[in-house]
Amino acid sequence: MAQESLAILNDSEKVYDLAGKRLALRCLNIAPFFDDLENPFRLGIIGPSNRGKTTFTWDLYSLLLAYWPSQLGILPTVHDLDIFTNSLPAAAGIIKWKDRKKNPHPSPEEERASIAEFRTLRGGIIIADVPGKLTGDYTPHRVAACHAVVILVDSIKEIPAWRKLTTESGIPAAWLISDPKHKGPVATKRVIHPTVFDLNREPRPFRVSLITTLTRILEMIARSRNIPLLNIWSLIDPDTNDPAFSKAERILLQEYLDFYYAPFTGGEDEV
Fold first, then answer.
1. Per residue in 233-252, is it b (16+ CB within 10 Å) or e — as a string?
2. Which of 49, 85, 129, 247 could form an SS bridge with 57, CB 3.0 to 4.6 Å?
3. CA-CA-CA-CA torsion sign (192, 195, 200, 206)
4. pTM exceeds 0.85
5. CATH value at residue 147
6. How far apart are alpha carbons 50 and 71 in whole angstroms?
C-alpha cells in the first residue's frame, strides 16, 4: 500500500487532482450551511508582521472562491482589516505594493470604526487580513470580532502569545509556520510542523499545499458551527462503483499532504 502511495506521489498531476477533489467535496459538504447573509463566518488571518499574511489571505480567498459551489451557498468574500498597511489591494493586483496608503498611527476612532464595520459585514465566509500587532488596545477586539483565526508565524515560539488572544476570546484557532525561503518541504533534522511556503507577495493560490491547508481550515469552520462533516472516505464513484478514494490515495492525502501542509487545529480526528 505504501508503495502505491509513493507511486502516486511521483505523479504531480495526480496529487493535485486528489487534493482538489477532496477540497471540492468538502466545499460541497459545507456550502449549503452558508445560505444566510445575516449569519456570516468571519475568519481572521493573524500573526506577527512580515509573515506573508496578506498574500496568504488573498490566496485562500481566491482558492475558496474557485472551488465554492455558488448554487449551494453564499460566495466567500475577503476583507482588509489592516488599517495600518492597507495591503490587500496590492495582493489583489489593484495597486502596486509601493503605492499602498499606509496609516501607521490611526486614531482610536478609526480603529473602533474598522472593527465595527467588520462586525457588521453580511455574507458567508469572510476571510480577513488582520494587522500584525500583538499589543495595542484594539488587538483583542479585532481578534474577538472573528469567529475563528489562522495564526501564521515564523516559529512555534511565537504561537503561545497569539493563542492567548484566541483563548481569551473563546474562538478556535489553527496555526501554520510561514517559510518564505523555500518553495516546498526540505530535508531537515528539526521537528516538522505544518508549513506554508513561498509567500513572497506573488499570489499563487492553486498549489497543492494551499489546497490542503484550505481543506483543514474548512473542517475547523465546520466543527465550530456544528456542521456535520461528510465521511468522504466512504463515498462511491457513481461512474465506476469504486470508492471515491483508494486506500493508497487516502494514505497519500492524510499521511503526507496533511502532515506537511494542514494547519494544526487540535481537532484532527478526520472523518
1. beeeeeeeeeebbeebbbbb
2. 129
3. positive
4. yes
5. 3.40.50
6. 37
